[in-house]
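Entry type: protein chain
Record version: 2
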Amino acid sequence: MLLDKNLLITGLNAAAENILGISKRRARGKSLMQLVDDEPELREILTRVLETGDHYANELHLGPNEVDGDERVIDCHVSPVSFEGASLIVELNDVTRRARITRENALMIQHGAGRQMIRQLAHEIKNPLGGIRGAAQLLERQLESDELKEYTEVVISETDRLAALVDTLLGPGGLPNKQPTNVHELLEYVVRVVQAEDQRSIKIMRDYDPGLPLLLLDRDQIIQALMNLVRNATQVLAGHGTVKLRSRAVNNFTIGDTRHRVIASIEIIDDGPGIPRDIQDSIFYPLITGNPEGTGLGLPLAQELISRHGGMIEFDSRPGRTTFFVRIPIEQADAS
């Protein structure tokens, strides 16, 4: 693109038309900043090059436009020129796919490391649980008061619950018990449970794809994964805000090393403060959390459960909008 000193477009090629979602005829004379929602980092770059005459390059995130409904990652190079009224030449290279593959590889590495850490942690927890349960049973036999025995019953009950959780974490990760399932019904179940737990004024919106077919899913595992994600979204809102649940079928999508003809994308979107930038690269590791009340186990466990279905959880976060994408292949459901 060529821009004048007021950042108005004086010329652009076909590639720029595609990235900006506007034709050359409509774009000429328009402010570039209006077309990119006044992206502050891009404005700073353009202003700096105008003032200093230096060349500048950076990676930017551009929001959705009329042509592309998703955020894009762009390599941006800006240089000063003096050509038929133009003061800047801006080169934009869409590297969204490359960035997504790089990020997905990082998530897979996190998942592998996270799975190993969870198993090690579960081993450390399981070892003393048997001793705690045995001691509580011995103590219960020495107590004559039914009131005091209630306390030992709580200890035994909670120990059994923790042991069951640890067994899940230490499980062999075998094939889930998959049945043809309407994922929207699972989402509605999760909403009912979360709303019953938290009576604060959080608005839940739905944007479901009615054409999404039944998926072959392990109901309990997917409910647990979705529960962790929706709970996280409601907790960060601190009682005020909106959570949006969205489902779509996406064609020709790659998960790991496998390209799928079509997948289901389940999205949990909140308008909260966003994930702190300093933990965004590690949130799928165990014990990493931006929530003071969180354990840091919800996301790694959700990732593990979705991975058992051949899928993956990804996310995009900035202040005012955080989206977790649950990607699950739906070729598996063809037999249904």
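Comment: Residues 96-142 form the longest helix (47 residues).
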